[in-house]
Amino acid sequence: MYAAHVLLAIVMIIGGSLQLIPAIRTKHPRFHRYNGRIFVLLACTISMAGIYLILARGTVGNTLMHGLTIFGGGVVILSSLLAVTAARKRNIALHKIWAIRLYLAANGVLFFRLMIFAWFLIFGTLGVDTTTFTGPTVLAISICSYVLPLLIAELVRYAENTTNKVITLITASLMVLIAIVFLVGLFGVVLANWFPAIVNL
Ligand code: HEM
Known about the structure:
The chain is mainly α. The chain has nine helices and no strands. Helix 1 runs antiparallel to helix 3 and helix 6 packs across helix 9.
């Protein structure tokens, strides 16, 4: 179950990113449709498997953290249904809104890893109880992984349509800050987690 969970996640992360490339959508709508259906199927399967693992096998963290991960899984399933329904009704603007919410919710676990490893690299285990993997930092990063991206997507959509320069500047600066945190986190997770896992295979 764990191996399937991780391998499918890799396929989904690459497939999902291809959905967001406008050139692929306009030139290859058939690829977008079928790759999109695979993404939706995988995202819903992985979310249901993840919710099963939390409820049946248990995992690190406390009830609040489990609740936030299950919330993320719920958003994936709801957004999948609404994104596909909107595309079938040719309401592409609504499809785009729900598809982006789906993409962000489906990548919540990836955002969590990138942020927690960025934190470890800069602040060590400050605010983290490493035995139970709970603490204020873990809770804050869970909220930043499963709730904040959905709110930032709303801010970006608002900033896209406003003439208010301050809002545009704040939103653009926020996106740059997020990109820097993710790059630091990627360096940390590869160094501490993924590269050792690969070389020790
Ligand atoms: C992760 C993100 C996305 C996923 C998973 C996704 C998924 C899908 C799926 C499953 C369909 C086919 C629906 C059906 O007939 O069964 C579809 C169609 C479509 N999507 Fe997306 N989509 C995503 C992002 C986007 C974005 C950002 C746009 C931009 C506007 C977009 C535009 C379209 C269009 C125009 C169609 C109709 C294609 C056609 O049938 O000619 N999608 N998408």
